[in-house]
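ok so for the tutorial part 2 we go from a plain amino acid sequence to predicted structure tokens. step 1 is just haveing the sequence, like this:
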Amino acid sequence: MALDYAQSASLRVNIPFQGRIGTAALKWASAILSDTSVDVSSSIARKNLDYARLVYAQPTQKAMELQPGVVQDPAVQAQDIVPSTGDSTITDPYLQQAVEATIAKVI
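step 2 — the prediction. this is what the tokens look like for a chain of 107 residues:
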């Protein structure tokens, strides 16, 4: 069942969901920052490195900024809401994909 507008609006400010987004963003950033084969002459690689550094320096801020875009991801929209927490029922691997897709749109 797709989320309605009210559910999407609630999920955009849901703190548990924001924490999961932050964890996924940090996982992405860790992979970028630990890749020793990054071609720094590539503008895309430099943008990724710069954003990964920002995620590490300000994970909560970046999670908050990414949250609206992640909520609109089709994989998130196709899930339900956990009644007790207001979090999404999306699994962590699919959330990781949604976060990475949103990061790609942002940078």
